[in-house]
Write a structure and sequence with these properties.
By secondary structure, the chain is of the alpha+beta class. The protein folds into 2 domains: 7-96, Nucleic acid-binding proteins (OB fold (Dihydrolipoamide Acetyltransferase, E2P), Beta Barrel); 123-417, Bira Bifunctional Protein, Domain 2 (BirA Bifunctional Protein, domain 2, 2-Layer Sandwich). It has 13 helices and 18 strands. An 8-stranded mixed β-sheet has the order 6-10-11-18-17-16-13-12. The protein has a 5-stranded mixed barrel with strand order 1-2-3-5-4. A 3-stranded antiparallel β-sheet has the order 7-9-8, with no helix packed on it. It is elongated, with a radius of gyration of 26 Å. Bound molecules: aspartyl-adenosine-5'-monophosphate.
Length: 429
């Protein structure tokens, strides 16, 4: 048994009892012949006191910051100590000695730049702030899954080595697959659609890969995509589902992540339902009225999104009904105006977090849109074939976890959020 209690579980009521803690040496201090060890475990920090005449004193002299130790001792209630208790060490076992000096200060007193932080990443992740980010992300995933289970969705996995592009060809990572060319999945798009044609309501949380050339704070070469696909539904239905999901995610984090939000000194925005829906054509009009030279069909970039955010006075808004030409081949056009599509992006301030649509569910239409986009229907036969055998109308969306975390933590770069980010410059650690 390495420990009898986590640090935070020991309260002043334990006065006089023996407990065993295990964790990392966060800080060390010498004071009047005594040694103070601030010990850290996953629940927080606790104070260990080593008296000069304790048999643990000898080994305490050898300790370095971030060494891993086990401490057996007697709890003393003391109002002056952090959390009202301290542990008087009787025995210390050194489980793993850390080299000194550390390349990065885990206590957070000495600030490091982002390149140092990413290079010395495991030490950086041990900092309180990063542990809070990791915990908030886990809460977001829990709320995502719970909301979907409640709505009758099933979690699935789809292949990550695939035969063709789904979101445009330029960003594909090729892999050699038994001598043939294959690619890392940019998105589970086509397979999640096929699965919606089996069990109707599916979701997946999995990595996706894009060989992004642009080095922005919001692009990664590998990101976790939270995907949803729903049969017998259109884009309005999935936007409503997304509103519920986001509402529950923020609620869960505010309720269960109070400590973590306090550490980050951040409050995520309330998700007011319904979230504002702005038509693409209205967005273009607003931007033109502000002097932007933007025409129908153009993408709406970050500077333009910032303007919309200011004009709408909403931090969270949908831009709906994008031009059909600007969306992937699987996106359904509006029947009354085929120039526009049944599609949406969810924007947080100036950042696209989610993208979704009603899908084409007729084979002839898919073949036509593939050709229009210069793609060969034959290359997609593995997908199209199943549209001959009963594919229900369906809709869905994909949400980038790291971008969602920008909204949930206030951290302005996905590279700081993801534990081991992959981008053009980084393949290790
Ligand atoms: P899209 O290409 O818009 O849509 O991607 C969906 C969401 O994934 C996130 N994202 C990224 N996050 C970090 N780094 C990247 N390089 C990156 N690229 C995308 C964004 C984005 O909103 N198949 C469709 C979704 C659907 O319609 O179901 C798709 O992939 O948050």
């Amino acid at each position: 048994m390495y420990r009898s209690h986590f640090i935070a579980d020991v309260t002043p009521e334990y006065d006089g009892k023996e407990v065993i803690w295990a964790g990392w040496v966060h800080l060390l201090r010498d004071l009047g012949g005594k040694k103070f060890i601030i010990l850290r475990d996953k629940t927080g920090l606790g104070q260990v006191v080593v008296d000069k005449n304790s048999s643990a004193f000898g080994i305490s002299q050898e300790l370095t910051q971030e060494s891993v130790i086990q401490v057996r001792g007697i709890v003393k209630a003391d109002k002056r100590a952090p959390r009202g208790i301290e542990l008087h060490a009787e025995e210390i076992t050194l489980l793993s000695k850390a080299k000194a000096p550390l390349p990065l200060d885990v206590s957070g007193k000495v600030k490091a730049d982002i390149d140092t932080r990413l290079r010395e990443r495991v030490l950086d992740l041990r900092r309180q702030e990063m542990q809070a980010v990791i915990k908030i992300q886990s809460l977001a995933l829990k709320a995502f899954r719970e909301t979907l289970y409640k709505e009758g969705f099933i979690e699935i996995f789809t292949p990550k080595i695939i035969a063709s592009a789904t979101e445009g060809g330029a960003q594909l990572f090729p892999v050699i697959y038994f001598g043939k060319e294959a690619f890392l999945a940019q998105s589970p798009q086509l397979y999640k659609e096929l699965m919606a044609g089996v069990v109707e309501r599916v979701f997946e949380v999995a990595p996706a890969w894009r060989a992004e050339e642009s080095d922005t704070p919001f692009h990664l070469a590998e990101f976790i995509s939270m995907d949803v696909e729903m049969a017998f539904a259109d884009y309005n239905d999935v936007m409503q589902l997304l509103e519920k999901i986001l509402h529950n995610i923020v609620k869960t984090i505010k309720e269960e992540g109070k400590e973590e939000l306090k550490i980050l000194n951040y409050e995520p925005p309330e998700v007011k339902i319904p979230i504002k829906r702005l038509k693409y054509t209205e967005a273009i009009e607003i931007l033109r009225s502000k002097g932007y030279n933007i025409k129908f069909g153009d993408d709406i970039g970050t500077p333009e999104l910032r303007i919309l955010n200011e004009e709408l006075k909403e931090d969270l808004y949908f831009i709906i009904d994008w031009p059909s030409d600007a969306r992937p081949f699987y996106t359904k056009s509006k029947s009354e105006n085929p120039e526009l599509s049944e599609s949406f992006d969810l924007i947080y301030k100036f950042l696209e977090i989610v993208s979704g649509s009603t899908r084409n569910h007729k084979r002839e239409v898919l073949e036509e849109t593939l050709k229009k986009k210069g793609l060969k229907p034959e290359s997609f036969e593995f997908f199209l074939k199943w549209f001959d055998y009963g594919m229900p109308p369906h809709a869905g969306f994909g949400m980038g976890l790291a971008r969602l975390m920008v909204m949930l933590t206030g951290i302005q770069s996905v590279k700081e959020i993801v534990p081991f980010p992959r981008d053009k410059k980084r393949l290790t650690p």
